[in-house]
Amino acid sequence: MNPHAPHPISINSLMSSIVRNRYLILQMTKREVIGRYKGSVLGVMWSFFNPLLLLMLYTFVFSVVFKARWGGDLTESKSQFAILLFVGMIVHTLFAETLNRAPSLILSNVSYVKKIVFPLEVLPVVALGTSLFHAFVSVVVLICAIFIVNGHLQWTIIFLPLIFLPLVILILGISWAIASLGVFLRDAAQPIGMLMTVLMFASPVFYPITALPEFIRPWLMLNPLTFVIEQARAVLIYGIVPDWTGVLIYCLVAVVFCWVGYAWFQKTRKGFANVL
Q1: Which of 111, 113, 211, 239 is close enough to 154 for a disulfide, judged by CB 3.0 to 4.6 Å?
Q2: Cα distance between residue 261 and residue 255, in whole Å
């Protein structure tokens, strides 16, 4: 690899880089997951307990303290409220966890920039892989909870990976752009952290989209999390087949964002060493 050669920005080079470095990505992801819990007594089991503890906390606050009901349904149990809430939490956490890390990905791996020729473009992929691991664990916990509460699972659950696919593609593209921005603008992490908090309440995490006035709903659909949260609830809880037209449109938009983010990262990476 010639460090002075122009870095490719095509979609083909994007896919080739991920495929070519797949073992490196897998090993680095595994190292990050294990390293996060290294030295703790329960180890990786904390990845199961953390979402459960948050679920219990949010459920207590919203359904017991504030006595909130999903869509005003008074016959709804606290367990059903918890399940609906947990779906939104998983989607938002996947999005927020990855993007909150993005600004510091290059800054925390300076040796990869200065000392060796390293495929820097895999760092956001590794961060996303780590978040996907925790999201997968949370989904397993959620599926177990649905089975315990309802006594059965909807057959439409098989479509859940397809619902998450466009979001994963979108997150990767945004991560590449923010990772590059974080090198040149050290304050980038601050507004992103605040934005993720705002996004949690601007998404239908704690409430159904039908709880909002009709004139606000189209604006809420511009939120990248809204469609995924609503469709995930549809296939997991209500047994409704996904909106395939919406999934396809989301995928196309996500691919464009992903390529733009990758291209920006590749175009600006030559300046990383000078800034660092």
Answers
A1: 239
A2: 10
Rounded Cα distance between 180 and 272, Å, is 8
Positive or negative: CA dihedral 168, 171, 177, 181: negative
**Mean pLDDT of the residues in the chain:** 86
Model confidence pLDDT, tens digit, residues 48-67 = 778 778 777 777 776 677 66
Claim: this prediction has a pTM higher than 0.85: yes
- Three-state DSSP class for 152? coil
What token pair was written down for 52?
Answer: 């459960």
Q: What is the pLDDT of residues 112-124, one digit of tens each?
A: 887 667 888 999 9
> Are 58 and 134 within 8 A, CB to CB?
no
Helix axes 244-268, 226-233, angle to 10 degrees: 140
Helix (H, G, I), strand (E, B) or coil at 189: helix
End-to-end CA distance of the chain: 21
Separation between Cα atoms, residue 166 and residue 247, nearest integer Å:
7
The 8-class DSSP code of residue 8 comes to: P
Cβ–Cβ < 8 Å for 257, 170: yes
**How large is the angle between the packed helices 244-268 and 160-184, nearest 10 degrees?**
20
Residue 91 to residue 40: CA distance in whole angstroms: 27
**187 CA to centre of own chain:** 22
Give the pLDDT confidence score for residue 171 in this predicted structure.
97
For 113, 151, 181, 198, 232, the CA distances from 203, given in Å and listed in that order, are 37, 29, 25, 9, 13
Cβ proximity of 241 and 126 under 8 Å: no
| Burial bucket for residue 204 (CB in 10 Å: 0-12, 13-18, 19+) | buried
Q: Are 64 and 77 in contact (CB under 8 A)?
A: no
